[in-house]
Backbone:
């Protein structure tokens, strides 16, 4: 899957300058980097939720994209109805809720769930569909450890079953290792390093990557 | 004071004909004007809050200015347009309930637009982002946005109704507060007080405050439901 080069400028400041790069089909890419490095902006542009400079579309036509934003939104309806927004069978929705431990909240108003519950609902809602590229922006940031473990297991299985390519924005290097096949390190809006996750995390080529990883004790 | 209050309660309980006429004119005017303002204001408010186009912020500023238009200025404008020297004099609408409704629509619509615009501006972005992330089409996204606005529309309607029922400046200028014809609760309170007849004024005041209390309780309950 080819990603064309694109940039994003806010108020005269270029916050993102991504060169052309390729994603291996069926791989999970952990996108790492400090705050303000451009991870979420890149995710939004690839998801089509934010236009790049000049309105350049970085993805080839016909590629379907599923996207879970950093802050999950719950529509004013029950959890079950939220999950069934894309259609699909109720059995699958039930199975997803069960796997994420939110089956007891099926009939509750989704806009009254806690942050972690909302994130689990949003993950189940996204996984009712099938996409070529799935982008998850810090999907487990609001979750406790148990919910994180359940979600990670589901994410892995979903990728295996659907064969999708995934971009997983995360601040957890452990999560990057657990889920990622590859890692992308963004620094100051630039794609600084890309490669197999173990190599980027333990044998980074660039000093900036090593400095960043030092803070995480990697 | 005590005897006026006793007489006021007696007037309410006895179903005084003049009082009932004032109440029915008030209800006709405020329900009509608030509903028309809602029908015009809601689509404009949603469009203004969810769309991004050149000149959008200028329109928001203009609407905010109209929200604070003094009712007497609105009344004056309608008076000049429809009085004997105005361009619309042949319509003979001055001192009718129709022109009172029209003046109120002009006063209330910007309030409806402003309230809808600020609400939709806050929810449109996450709704659109989530819908796009799920691969939903434009039609379904719009339906989801409208679904998110349902309680807000009720709440805005109650606000519009409360504004209409309590308005006095514009309706007294264009309606003329004619007994049995265009006299509404607020203008009647002024009229009877000026005459020194406090009992009808107090009776109307009690009814006005009670309806205002009911509307405000309803708004507060709805806002609790809307609040995230």
Residues:
């Amino acid at each position: 899957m080819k990603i064309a080069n694109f940039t994003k400028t806010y108020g005269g400041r270029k916050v993102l300058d991504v060169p052309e790069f390729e994603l291996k089909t069926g791989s999970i890419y952990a996108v790492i980097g400090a705050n303000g490095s451009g991870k979420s902006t890149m995710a939004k542009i690839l998801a089509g939720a934010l236009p790049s400079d000049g309105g350049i579309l970085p993805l080839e036509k016909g590629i379907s994209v599923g996207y879970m934003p950093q802050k999950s939104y719950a529509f004013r309806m029950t959890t079950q109805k939220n999950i069934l927004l894309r259609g699909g069978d109720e059995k699958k929705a039930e199975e997803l809720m069960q796997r994420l431990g939110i089956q007891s909240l099926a009939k509750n108003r989704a806009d009254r769930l806690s942050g972690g519950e909302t994130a689990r609902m949003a993950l189940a809602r996204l996984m009712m569909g099938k996409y070529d590229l799935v982008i998850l922006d810090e999907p487990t940031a609001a979750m406790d450890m148990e919910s994180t473990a359940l979600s990670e297991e589901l994410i892995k299985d979903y990728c295996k079953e659907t064969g999708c390519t995934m971009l997983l924005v995360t601040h957890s290097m452990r999560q990057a290792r657990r889920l990622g096949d590859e890692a992308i390190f963004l620094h100051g809006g630039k794609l600084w390093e890309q490669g197999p996750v173990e190599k980027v995390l333990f044998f980074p080529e660039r000093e900036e990557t090593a400095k960043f990883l030092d803070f995480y004790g990697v | 004071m005590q005897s006026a209050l006793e007489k006021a309660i007696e007037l309410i309980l006895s179903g005084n004909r003049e009082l009932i006429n004032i109440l029915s004119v008030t209800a006709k005017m405020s329900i009509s004007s608030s509903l028309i303002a809602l029908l015009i204001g809601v689509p404009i408010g949603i469009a203004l809050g969810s769309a991004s186009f050149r000149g959008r912020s200028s329109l928001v500023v203009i609407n905010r200015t109209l929200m604070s238009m003094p009712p007497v200025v609105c009344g004056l404008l309608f008076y000049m347009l429809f009085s004997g020297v105005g361009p619309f004099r042949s319509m003979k609408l001055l001192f009718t309930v129709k022109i009172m409704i029209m003046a109120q629509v002009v006063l209330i619509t910007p309030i409806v637009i402003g309230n809808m615009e600020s609400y939709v501006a806050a929810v449109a972005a996450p709704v659109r982002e989530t819908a796009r992330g799920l691969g939903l089409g434009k039609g379904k996204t719009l339906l989801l946005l409208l679904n998110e606005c349902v309680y807000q529309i009720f709440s805005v309607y109650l606000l519009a109704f409360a504004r209409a029922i309590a308005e006095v400046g514009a309706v007294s200028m264009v309606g003329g507060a004619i007994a049995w014809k265009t006299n509404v609760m607020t203008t009647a309170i002024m009229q009877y007080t000026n005459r020194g007849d406090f009992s009808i004024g107090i009776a109307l005041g009690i009814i006005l405050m009670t309806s205002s209390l009911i509307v405000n309780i309803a708004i507060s309950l709805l806002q609790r439901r809307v609040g995230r």
Q: What stands out?
A: The CA atoms of residues 12 and 203 of chain B lie 6 Å apart. The mean pLDDT of chain B is 91.
